[in-house]
Amino acid sequence: MMKRSISTHVFLQQRLHAGLLDAMVGAGAQSIELFAARHHFDYVDRTEVKELAKWFRSNDCRATLHQPIFDGRGANWSKHVPPSINLIDVEKTRRIDAMDEVKRALEAAEQIDIDSIVLHLGTQNDTWNERTLDISMTAIEHIKAFAAPLGVKTLIETLPNDVTTPEHLMEMLRIGHLDSVNVCLDVGHMNLHGMGGVASAFEILGDRIKQLHLHDNGGEKDEHCWPGEGTVKWDEVRAGIAALKLPPTGTLEIRYEPEMDAKTMSANAAKAFHMLEQPVPQPQS
Fold it and tell me: Which residue from 152, 151, 150, 144 is spatially nearest to 121, judged by alpha carbons?
């Protein structure tokens, strides 16, 4: 059975505090994904990081980290703002800036016991070619070298772009001999039109899947709805999880809504976990 996890993405417009973490544990979370955005989780504020580290030490709950995808403090952030940090940007200076920001977030692992970091490679418009492959492998190697001494594993997320399709991710890991790097399978992204579907992603990625991002959509845009509110085939997700040798971390990565208070989030998350843990339907004979 997968390890239950919730991303703080659900509270992205709010400053992260112990009360929100308590609500996630109350919903059944065994692990929490810290979504690195300075207006939400300010990973460069040592006092804030120290307070969160104290909470994790006092609770039976693990931590993972989602890399920053927004520049600076995000004062003008909204759910309509596209990512502005790109580790494989065509411009070298922007790649360097992106790398520096991800490393700043990773430094939180000096105080918080973080199991893994989830990386984004590229934006929606990035395409797969030899140059992209080379830059991607360089970025992964750089992050891996920085994260490993901190005890943090490196995971690459399947995004709705041509660079991080399951096939291209596996090619990247194979060519780069990146045996210690694994994958975060984003179920919602695989449900989008043209992305190949959830069942195919499980088949291609197999046991390289160590974490899942669990959310739903109608197949046309990346909506980050609660499981069951869209067209994701959750029977295929449950079957894919059951087929893995080691249970992954299953992270509910739900969009921020102003009306989503801690109580509502907790109830919705508990309901989603219950649905995801139902027995896998057996094929009719």
Answer: 144
- Structural domain for 198, as ranges: 3-276
Q: Quick one: tokens of 153?
A: 């594993």
Q: Is there a domain that residue 20 lies in?
A: yes
For residues 195 and 188, is the Cβ–Cβ distance under 8 A? no
Q: Which two tokens stand for residue 272?
A: 């989603």
Name residue, tokens 């918080």: 112
In-domain check, residue 283 = no
CA distances from 260 to 21, 244, 250, 273 (A): 14, 33, 21, 18
Give yes or no for a contact between 200 and 237, defined as CB atoms under 8 angstroms apart: no
Cβ-proximal residues to 282 (8 Å cutoff; 6+ apart), any chain? none
Question: Residue 71's pLDDT band (boundaries 50, 70, 90)?
Answer: confident
Q: Is residue 58 situated within a structural domain?
A: yes
Strands 209-214 and 3-7: unpaired
- Would you state the structure tokens that stand for residue 220, as one six-digit string? 């046309």
Interatomic CA distance for residues 122 and 136, integer angstroms:
9
Average pLDDT over residues 13-42: 95
For residue 188, is it within any domain?
Answer: yes
pLDDT at 75: 45
For residue 103, the domain's CATH number is: 3.20.20.150
Q: What is the pLDDT of residue 285?
A: 55
pTM metric for this prediction: 0.94
Best CA proximity match to 159, nearest among 179, 185, 182: 185
Confidence of residue 281 (pLDDT cuts 50, 70, 90): confident
The CB-side HSE value for 135 (13 A sphere, CA atoms) comes to 24
Percent of the chain at pLDDT exceeding 90: 89
Instruction: Give the pair of three-digit tokens for residue 154.
Output: 């490196």
Residues 244-256 have a mean pLDDT of 97
